[in-house]
Every structure is written in C-alpha cells, then in structure tokens.
Amino acid sequence: MRVLVTGGNAGIGYFVAEQLASAGVEVVIGSRDPVKARAAAASIRSRVAGAKAGCVRLDLADLGSLEPDVGELDAVVCNAGVALDAPPRRETPDGHELMFGTNHLGHFALIARLLPALTPAARIVTTGSFAAKSASLDFLDLQSERDYQPKRAYERSKLAQLLFALELDRRLRAAGSRRVSVLAHPGGALDSLTPSRPPVHTRTAGAWLRGLPARVVLHGKDAGARPAVRAVLDPDVEGGQLWGPRVFGLRGRPRLERRWANLADDAAAARLWKESVALTGLEPLG
C-alpha cells in the first residue's frame, strides 16, 4: 500500500505518516519544504524498522505547481494547511485568500490532478478541524475580501475542505467508481501533549507540565492523527463517513461520528464545487 500525506513533515501529518509506516504502508510526504520533508522521512525510518518513507515537493498555495510525480497511490491524506491568527489578509501566488487558497483550493486542485494516479479502490481522506463545526460559508464573500477575520476565515476554509470531500464522494458514487472519499478530524490536539520527535517536534518538560491539565479534554497530535489513519486502513470504512475522537469529539480513540449539521447542506457542497472549478480551472472527474 502506498499513501501520500500532504503536510506530512510536521504536526498531525507527521504522525499520520509515522503511524501508517508502522502498519507497513509506504508513505510519501508531501511538503513545500524539502529539507523538513527529508528530516521527517528520516525520523520515521529511524523509529520504524524497515519503514518506506519518501518525500515530494508540494506547495498547495501554488496551484500551478501541483503536478507531483508520485506514481500510483492507494490513498491520499489531505492534511496540510495553514492557519493565521492575526491580520493582515494574505494571498497565494494565484491571488486567493491564503487559508482558503491553500487548505481548500490547493487540495481541490491536487485531487483533480492526482485522480489518474489513484488505484481503482483508492481512498481520499480529508483532515478537517473541529473548529469548522460551527462555521458557515458566505458565497458572497467566499474569500473574505470584504470582511476578513482570521479565525473565521480558517474555520470556513476547513469547512470547505469537508464539503468538498462529501461532494467528491457523491460524484464518485454517481460515476460508479470504487474510490471513496472519507472525512476525519483530530479533535483538540496540542503540541504540549505531543511526544517529541526531534528534529520534527521537541517537547520540553516545562511544556509537558503546563499541558497536563488539558489532558482531561484534549490530547496530543499523535492521538489526533488516529482518525485519519483509521480512515485509510480500516477495511470497513465507507465513503462519506466522518471519523473523529470518541470523547466529545475532542480526545480519545477514533470513532464514527454523525455528520455535523453544517455538513448536511448538499446544495452548498455542490455550489462550492462549481465555484472551486471556476477558481482553479480544474474539474475533478471532469
């Protein structure tokens, strides 16, 4: 089995790649930073005996660059993303709002270009965010040009990812494909609760102590990776499902969740698909 993990050089993406490698999967780390990607692959190989871990340059903010030579894939984990916590509003080289352009449009374009390389029963797993649970899209200001609030723009970009994943699965079913699109989210995953993986991530003793009270309701990024890993590996997983942590959706082992209320809007998902085609010039399944 061969799986591409976008953003596999750090954070949750790194632990998705490490856990997949531990299960015998060949992982390909997609990252815009080749040095960090190589360090992550080396870390996995040092921790997992016999691990097959490689890397490919992948900059989701630059749609024109998204033609990676990755060979045949059995799954793609759409995990990479960017989160800004303060103004000013920033744009990608293509002129899109940075978070929407990277988190959603980048993965939309990537999947459109990767579909021919996916095996007939491949899985496309999209890692969303619990922060998107209460978000809603504004189709009159999809890229926050009139009213930019970083936290809200991030939440909307993650909701867009999840709606795309659902619409992709519906269209795969309609086309009679055996490929499936699955949703996952990590819950509340903190660096302070994440085990060290130098040089990818180093947790100090002080950070660990400060994070201990949060363990009641949150967990580390290693645990936050497990829903996506389950979505890739579990033979009983079905398209359109949402996987997340079992304790209030914030921590614990993976479980199948009910779709959130804002993921039930099929009309919004279809409209987002149409808007994304116009913005990227690409049509998955087209």
Radius of gyration: 18 Å
Work out the helix count: 8
Order of helices and strands: EHEHEEHEHEEHEHHEEH
The total strand number stands at 10
CATH architecture: 3-Layer(aba) Sandwich
- What does the overall shape look like? globular
Task: Using brief descriptors, characterize the structure shown.
two-stranded parallel sheet, alpha/beta, globular, Rossmann fold, 286 residues, 8-stranded mixed beta sheet
Description:
Strand 9 (242-247) and strand 10 form a beta hairpin. Helix 1 (11-22) crosses helix 7 (226-233) and helix 3 (98-114) runs parallel beside helix 4. The chain has a single domain, classed as 3-Layer(aba) Sandwich (Rossmann fold), CATH 3.40.50. The protein has helices at 11-22, 34-47, 98-114, 150-174, 205-211, 221-224, 226-233, 266-280; strands spanning 2-6, 26-31, 53-57, 73-78, 118-127, 180-184, 189-190, 219-220, 242-247, 251-257. The longest helix is centred in the middle third of the chain and has 25 residues, at 150-174. 36% of the residues lie in helices and 19% in strands. It is built from eight helices and ten strands. With 286 residues, the protein is of the alpha/beta class. The strands form two sheets. It has an eight-stranded mixed beta sheet with strand order 3-2-1-4-5-6-9-10, with helices on both faces. Strands 7-8 form a two-stranded parallel ribbon. The model has no long low-confidence stretch (mean pLDDT 95).
